[in-house]
Amino acid sequence: MSKNLAIIPARRGSKRLPGKNTKLFLGRPLILWTIDVAMSSSSIDEIVVSSDCIDTLEIAKGAGVTELHLRSAATSSDEAKMQEVISETLNYLGGEKVSSFSCLALLQPTSPLRSPVDVERSFELFTNYPDTDCVISYTQRPQNLGDSKRISILKDGYVDAFPVEMRKIDSNPVYIRNGPAICLSKLPQAQSQLLHGKIRGYEMPFIRSLDIDSQTDFLIAEAIGRYALNI
Description:
The structure is a single chain. The chain is an alpha/beta fold and about 230 residues long. It is globular. The model has no long low-confidence stretch (mean pLDDT about 90). It has helices at about 30-40, 55-60, 80-95, 95-100, 115-130, 215-230; strands at about 5-10, 25, 30, 45-50, 65-70, 105, 135-140, 150-155, 160, 175, 185, 200-205. About 30% of the residues lie in helices and about 20% in strands. It has one domain (about 5-140, about 175-225): Spore Coat Polysaccharide Biosynthesis Protein SpsA, Chain A (Alpha-Beta Complex), CATH 3.90.550.10.
């Protein structure tokens, strides 16, 4: 029977929102929201939290996560790539253990409003479409962010309000990747290349797709979370 592994990467250094992974989001550390989703998903058999922050690892331990990876300085820097983090985390687990898993789920803690249903439906794509190698989540871009409202900022603060031909919004929706909400990849290929082969998409609602990167993002996500969760 195939098993699936989830990696939750939680680097300490955030220039725009320091300490965001342990920052209280609706009364609970931000990272706990992603841990809860991973634990609630029947598709995920084991979770490993990878961080260079002891406080983050202690929170994960208190939540019941048993695999805690303390990152090296090399994978904790601003220049470190996610693939390097994944490779180091898998090496920490060991080849024999990693070989027991069929798929890897990368769930970054900056998308706290994703739900277990999103994870389940993403994994179902592997079953429904056997040729799929990877799954990434995406969302529809709100129409009020369309090109028809684009402007150009000129010298001395002047504005060109008509840099593109003003037109009605195209009836065809525009889709964007919703940050790091969900990324699934088959093993062992994910050890060297997270996205590979045939990549299928899973559409998420915009309100569950918010990616927290700044204090403004944080406040908006909390406001939506209170509304959606009736908190």
